[in-house]
Automatic annotation (TrEMBL):
One of its GO terms (cellular component) is cytosol. Keywords: Heme, Hydrogen peroxide, Iron, Metal-binding, Oxidoreductase, Peroxidase. This is Catalase. There is a cross-link at H339-Y362 (3'-histidyl-3-tyrosine (His-Tyr)). Its EC number is 1.11.1.6. The lineage of its organism: Bacteria, Bacillati, Actinomycetota, Actinomycetes, Glycomycetales. Decomposes hydrogen peroxide into water and oxygen; serves to protect cells from the toxic effects of hydrogen peroxide. It comes from the Bacteria. It catalyses: 2 H2O2 = O2 + 2 H2O. Heme binds at R71, R112, F161, R358, Y362, R369.
Length: 701
């Protein structure tokens, strides 16, 4: 009986702790009712966020501490060391930050790439934003440029960040789905918060499926401020542009990669650096004089907006090269701590309310994730600049302070460390005044025009992918009312888009929408002016016993000479025997690989090899799937037979002269008879990334 009484009391306690938050007033943790939770408390509609906003601080603080020990967001990541060097001193007219203005100065960096929504153990290739965070170890202290591969964010005010992330994370009742946005809570949030729509358009585009971290743009997202020696400010947006160009997976490919190699992007970065194929980006800036702050049809402080490159050009100012992998993932990639407020002289903030909240949130997060205030002592976080201050003790204190004082001012230690030394950081002087209000500026309330700009800027292929993405995502939403609300929002972006999405998700198509302004920005498209290169592209060369060894060897050597990464993929591991009796080493065994892990595929000649490949279902699927995903496909000699068995629909070469048909390159010649024009044509097809005009509807792969 005593046990039953104890159990009853425990059940009563559990009942009291089991909270249904439906139909109740929103309060703080202290029970104080909250009147408004969409905007931080600011000094005026466009003024800085006030620290006395106890609701925003409590909300964000609790959010920052919801996951232990992994990051709440950006948990899944990969990183590398490298260097940054400015091109010239041009930017010295606008900033005193020497690492941006002195071409003789080489600045060490650590860059961490990441997905946003998934847990630390999730896969690399979900549809998601990618983090692109760079720590510059400058002579004047650490500077962190904490950005994404989208130039805009989903919300305008940091007080909404917990709401957005809660919505996109797995649903609380069942912790499903992992690392995916295709579920009810995210789209419920989107349907009720139209400020999300511009970033949602990016999320539904190919930008959310990068082929490689090395082929991904990065953006600082916010408008920051450069400050010159006289204290004058200039607004700035930061851009990272990869020298390899911007390329993406297709959605079906991304899904299959998640199962075939969940570490696809992480492995790609690691292997490229180990092979000496160092990834590189140009750092570019868009500069806006303070006198032009209000010349745009959007607010520079609004993080859901971008400055079209056609209005303000991106000026390249330096180059980033990643050249060394970490020695230990946990000690370096996992323990690195970024913070938007880690700035150096010459770089300052604006009153962007999302940035203002991030300046609080990042530091707050590190305090619990890394066990206290001394996380800057960890080697990966330690600046190269000397550190002297009066901060003492705390968890994990690594420094042995021998000074007799730890306060300022003091007479015992000669007033050291002394503030006000030369090159000290000085905040930009800005007049701030306004009523203390919890309100959004009217200049932030255009939620649709830049989403329309993005849509108008897409090529037909990119637009088709966006429609398919909306259909997939909303097709996973069980509540048709949410689907209908999203479509109703999309009609204010573009009526045709809304109608095409509605047709695929089973809700009524709207008959009317907002007028499309017709403006576009070609720089937003990945396909209008792509970078064409075969460098670092992975090419599978299928082989079996009886292969044309001289032709295979020549093809592999030519691809390597051009900077590609060819791999001989055999039906089994070990070696294959050429038609001439030579042993050829196999790099990969077909059962361990898949076409989605390569950028192109080639089938060499040799009658016996072609016959063996033509009997193997995995080999045929490999070729057909690569063709379906519009990748470059090549075959020579008897290898053409394999393409035909796999039902690759392309014109067949009957002679030595190569035939190129929508990214499929063939020549009937083998061995030493293979013409250089065949090798050139295959390289050109790989450089195209994909044959986007190739019809693939009937391909069963």
């Amino acid at each position: 009986m005593a046990h039953e009484g104890a159990r009853d009391r425990k059940d009563e306690q559990l009942d009291r702790d089991r909270i249904a938050d439906d139909d109740t007033a929103l309060t703080t943790q202290q029970g104080v009712r909250v009147a408004h939770t969409d905007d931080s408390l600011k000094a005026g509609g466009r003024g800085p966020t006030l620290m006395e906003d106890f609701h925003a601080r409590e909300k964000i603080t609790h959010f920052d501490h919801e996951r232990i020990p992994e990051r709440v967001v950006h948990a899944r990541g990969a990183g590398a060391y490298g260097v940054f060097r400015a091109y010239d001193d041009w930017l010295g007219k606008f900033t005193t930050a020497s690492f941006l203005t002195d071409p003789a100065e080489t600045t060490p960096v650590f860059v961490r790439f990441s997905t946003v929504a998934g847990s630390r153990g999730s896969a690399d290739t979900p549809r998601d934003v990618r983090g692109f965070a760079t720590k510059f170890y400058t002579r004047e202290g650490n500077y962190d440029l904490v950005g994404n591969n989208f130039p805009v964010f989903f919300i305008q005010d940091g007080v909404k960040f917990p709401d957005f992330v809660h919505a996109v994370k797995p649903e609380p009742r069942n912790e499903i789905p992992q690392a995916a946005s295709a579920h009810d809570t995210l789209w419920d949030f989107v349907s009720l918060q139209p400020e999300t729509l511009h970033a949602i358009m990016w999320l539904m585009s190919d930008r959310a499926l990068p082929r490689s971290y090395r082929m991904m743009q990065g953006f600082g997202v916010h408008t920051f401020r450069l400050v010159d020696a006289a204290g004058h400010g200039t607004f700035v947006k930061f851009h990272w542009k990869p020298l390899l160009g911007v390329h993406s997976l297709v959605w079906e490919e991304a899904q299959k990669v998640s199962g075939t190699d969940p570490d696809f992007n992480r492995r790609d970065l690691w292997e490229a650096i180990e092979a000496g194929q160092f990834p590189e980006w140009e750092l570019g800036v868009q500069l806006v004089p303070e006198a032009d702050e209000f010349k745009f049809d959007f607010d520079l402080l609004d993080a859901t907006k971008l400055i079209p490159e056609e209005e303000v050009a991106v000026r390249p100012v330096g180059r980033l090269t990643l050249n060394r992998n970490p020695d230990n993932f946990f000690a370096e990639t996992e323990q690195i701590a970024f913070h938007t407020a880690n700035v150096v002289p010459g770089i300052d903030f604006t009153n962007d309310p999302l940035l203002q909240a991030r300046n609080f949130s990042y530091l707050d997060t590190q305090l619990i994730r890394l066990g206290g205030p001394n996380f800057a002592h960890l080697p990966v976080n330690r600046p190269v600049a000397e550190v002297h201050n009066d901060q003492r003790d705390g968890f994990s204190q690594h420094r042995v302070h021998t000074s007799g004082t730890s306060y300022n001012k003091n007479s015992i230690s000669g007033d050291a460390p002394t503030p006000g030394a030369e090159r000290s950081y000085r905040h930009y002087t800005e007049k701030v005044e306004g009523a203390k209000i919890r309100q959004r500026s009217e200049s932030f309330k255009d939620f649709y025009s830049q989403a329309t700009l993005f849509w108008n800027s897409m090529t037909p292929v990119e637009a088709e992918h966006i429609v398919a993405a909306f259909r997939f995502e909303l097709g996973k939403v069980t509540d048709k009312g949410i689907r209908a609300r999203v479509v109703d929002q999309l009609r204010l972006v573009d009526l045709g888009l809304a109608q095409r999405v509605a047709e695929g998700v089973g809700v009524p198509a709207p008959a009317e929408g907002a007028p499309n302004h017709g403006r576009s920005s070609p720089a937003l498209s990945q396909l209008i002016a792509p970078v064409r290169s075969v460098a670092t592209r992975k090419v599978a060369v299928l082989a079996a016993d009886g292969v044309d060894g001289s032709g295979l060897t020549r093809l592999v050597a030519d691809l390597r000479r051009r900077g590609a990464v060819p791999e001989v993929v055999g039906l089994t591991d070990g070696i294959v025997r050429s038609a001439a009796g030579e042993d050829i080493s196999v790099d990969r065994a077909l059962p361990t690989m898949a076409s989605v892990l390569y950028d192109a595929v080639a089938v060499p000649g040799g009658a016996d090899a072609a016959a063996a490949l033509g009997r193997d279902g995995r080999a045929l699927h490999f070729v057909a799937e690569a063709f379906k995903h519009r990748k470059a496909v090549a075959a020579f000699g008897a290898g053409i037979d394999v393409l035909e068995i796999a039902r690759v629909d392309a014109d067949r070469a009957e002679g030595a002269e190569p035939v190129v048909d929508l990214g499929v390159v063939t020549t009937a010649a083998e061995g030493g008879e293979m013409p250089d024009a065949f090798l050139d044509a295959f390289a050109e097809a790989i450089a195209d990334h994909r044959a986007w005009n190739r019809p693939t509807d009937g391909v069963a792969a």
